[in-house]
From TrEMBL:
Principal location class: nucleus
Biological classification of the source: Eukaryota, Metazoa, Spiralia, Lophotrochozoa, Mollusca
Protein name: snRNA-activating protein complex subunit 3
GO MF entry, a single one: RNA polymerase III type 3 promoter sequence-specific DNA binding
Places the protein is found: Nucleus
Organism from which the protein derives: Elysia crispata
Length: 415
């Protein structure tokens, strides 16, 4: 089946709305090639191929032992410095008052760390040029919305403060049962999972992402179960005749169809934990043998592979696919040794380091409440389809006795 080309009026590829439940392999490969072509010019650099297990073995025994030691208190650090320099503790305290971190603050800074990036005036007695340019840039962004969006699209991170403190203070204050202790030595990988990719709008969707911290010893299925997507919350079927049913009692597509795969370095990691799960990679590999014979694709079971077993490139975009054709970009952005400041309870991983803001869609009738229904085939709706809240849905499309005003169709809507 030849894959069509071109874009529709809505900016998406013409065949986007015609995809079957399981995407045809030739379309999948073509989509992958277009996805690579549409990557923005300002992309992060990719690292060399690295294996997390080999990365962990590069460090000597002393380095691994150092990761088990919790950071010392300031008083103990002062005593150690005094002993190493052969001076009194009073001398070290005096040096800290003169040269310590406190001297970098004037006392007029905002208490909240996030507010430091929004300062409108430079503190007195401060001559930092970077702070001066930051304040000027903030003012320019407020005056010119176009400049604000331009800068935001070029930023590597949209939430700077997230990457300054991922594990909150006091997270490891309680004792952990030995059976739930994170096995050591270990590594932590930072994984970005982007919003479902739509062809033609990659530059925007790549900024909307969730960030997870995963252990090298964890199976890939643990990350797969943690990923949240709207397509897993869809309730299929027309419920216009059963509006009284509580949607929380209905089965979602995520509960019905659990097949998925990670595509990393030409390897398909399929989720085959359930007997009725489908191998999405089989038709793709069959097609690739005839059309991409120079590239070898292999398959492995997701539940049998840990992150230690992966060969990855930091900064490269890999693929996670579920629900037939719902695609997400997966990026490994960091790899480091597990240490005493991280969560020690293995049950807390994968840790959600940053969750993107989920926007809501409002009712197209009242423009106030969140949309709960997607209605089509009704003469009373302004467009096809129309999103309605619960109140507008009942008052517009039903009579007083509860019967329908027309033969319309209504689907539960999630955003």
């Amino acid at each position: 089946m030849p894959a069509p080309s071109g874009y529709g009026a809505d900016g998406q590829h013409a065949w986007t709305g015609l995809l079957p439940a399981v995407m045809a392999p030739e379309i999948w490969v073509l989509n992958l090639e277009l996805y690579k072509m549409e990557r923005p010019k300002r992309r992060r650099e990719e690292s060399e191929l690295v294996n997390p297990r080999e990365f962990m073995s590069f460090w000597c025994l002393d380095a691994h032992e150092a990761t088990r030691v919790k950071p010392s208190t300031s008083a103990l650090i002062q005593r150690n410095i005094a002993a190493a320099m052969g001076v009194s503790n009073e001398t070290i305290s005096e040096l800290e008052d003169v040269c310590g971190r406190k001297t970098l603050f004037t006392g007029q800074e905002p208490k909240k760390k996030a507010s430091l990036y929004k300062m409108n005036e430079q503190p007195p007695q401060s001559e930092l040029q970077c702070l001066k340019h930051q304040i000027e840039s903030n003012k320019k962004r407020e005056e010119k919305p176009s400049f604000h969006f331009l800068i935001k699209n070029q930023m590597k991170y949209t939430h700077t403060d997230v990457f300054m403190s991922i594990v909150p203070e006091g997270a490891n204050s309680r004792q952990v049962d030995p059976q739930f202790q994170v096995p050591q030595p270990n590594v932590i990988l930072t994984v970005e999972v982007n919003k479902c990719l739509l062809h033609g709008v990659y530059g925007q969707t790549a900024k909307e992402r969730d960030i997870y911290l995963v252990l090298g010893s964890q199976a890939l299925t643990e990350l797969r179960d943690k990923i949240k997507c709207t397509s897993d919350r869809v309730i299929p079927g027309d419920y216009s005749n059963m509006s009284y049913i509580d949607p929380r009692t209905l089965q979602t597509t995520g509960e019905m169809f659990k097949s998925s795969f990670f595509f990393i370095e030409n390897v398909f990691y399929n989720d085959m934990r359930l007997a009725d799960n489908k191998d999405y990679s089989r038709p793709i590999i069959t097609w690739a043998k005839d059309h991409m014979s120079e590239t070898e694709f292999t398959t492995k079971e997701m539940s049998e592979q840990t992150f230690f077993d992966l060969n990855i490139r930091l900064g490269r975009h890999y693929l996670f696919t579920h629900q037939g054709n719902c695609e997400h970009s997966i990026v490994f952005t960091d790899l480091r040794l597990f240490n005493a400041t991280d969560y020690q309870d293995v049950r807390l991983y994968p840790v959600v380091a940053n969750a993107r803001i989920r926007s809501r869609d409002v009712c197209q009738a009242c423009c106030t409440f969140s949309a709960k229904w997607c209605v089509s085939n009704s003469p009373l709706i302004p467009c096809e389809p129309t999103l309605l809240c619960g109140k507008c849905y009942k008052s517009l499309l039903f009579k007083k006795d509860g019967t329908k005003t027309s033969d319309f169709k209504a689907y539960h809507y999630v955003s």
